[in-house]
Amino acid sequence: MKTDTVGQIVLDEADLIDMIMCDRDLESISEAMIVDDSVDLEAAAFWLEYVPAFTYWTEPLNQESFDAIQQQQWHMPDKYKQLDIAEHVLTLCTTDAELQRCGHELMLYQERGLFDLLRFLTYLVDVMRDNHVIWGVGRGSSVSSYVLYKLGIHRIDSMFYDLDVEEFLR
After folding, report:
1. Kind of pairing between the strands at 9-11 and 33-35
2. How far apart are CA 96 and CA 104, in angstroms?
3. Long-range contact set of residues 122-125: C-beta below 8 Å, sequence gap at least 24
4. Partners of 104 in the beta sheet?
5. Is residue 10 within 8 Å of residue 4, measured between CB atoms?
6. pLDDT for residue 52
7. Who's near 27: CB < 8 A, 6+ residues apart?
8. DSSP 8-state code for residue 122
9. Which residues pair with 58 in a beta bridge?
10. Sequence-distant (≥ 6) Cβ neighbours of residue 12 within 8 angstroms
11. What is the pLDDT of residues 29-86, one digit of tens each?
């Protein structure tokens, strides 16, 4: 096995057959791997029935293409995929100042196509809370986002400290 430039595991035919013969659970790990383009998929159809979830690319991916593909595949329950994230965030606000700040930030997130990310982060925080997972107070420029604060991603009130969301969304 080898990894590509974006860190995904690349398997050749021998790797796949070895995994099948060792009775590895391919379903649970297949999304993190790709099949090398040198594999003759037509000739190797007998093992493809075991690995239907593998992604197959014939062209090497650059970082931008890889990110675009991954951002289309959010693994979360439909409840979160269908969530009106703007309405959800705005219902968490208690003052007019909070509503204005969140409204401004939500427009910036929407312009950048990041609503799916906010939905996933909402799901992630809910899972961590349900499982009593402890996460950090906040880190880096993300603490300048009041929306992330309201969602519980971090615990730094960026309005209190007068932090500009532009620092995060540059």
Report:
1. parallel
2. 12
3. 122/80, 122/83, 122/85, 122/88, 122/151, 123/76, 123/77, 123/80, 125/151, 125/152, 125/153
4. none
5. yes
6. 47
7. 53
8. H
9. none
10. 35, 36, 38, 39
11. 555 556 666 655 555 555 545 544 455 555 667 788 777 777 777 888 889 999 999 9
Better-predicted residue by pLDDT, 18 or 43: 18
The angle at the Cα of 17, spanning 14 to 61, to the nearest 5 degrees, equals 60
Name every residue whose Cβ is closer than 8 Å to that of residue 104 and which is 6 or more positions away in sequence.
Answer: 165
Contact indicator for 156, 149 with CB cutoff of 8 Å: yes
Name the amino acid, one letter, at 74.
W
Q: Which of 130, 127, 166, 126 is nearest to 146 (CA)?
A: 166
- pLDDT tens for 90-144 read 999 999 999 999 999 999 999 998 999 999 999 999 999 999 999 989 888 889 9
Question: By three-state DSSP, how is residue 3 classified?
Answer: strand
Please report the pLDDT score of residue 5 as a whole number: 75
**Residues counted in the chain:** 170
What is the Cα–Cα distance from 144 to 165, expressed in whole angstroms? 5
The domain segmentation of the chain, as residue ranges, is: 2-70, 78-167
Predicted confidence at residue 84, as pLDDT, reads 97
**Distance, C-alpha 131 to centroid of its chain:** 19
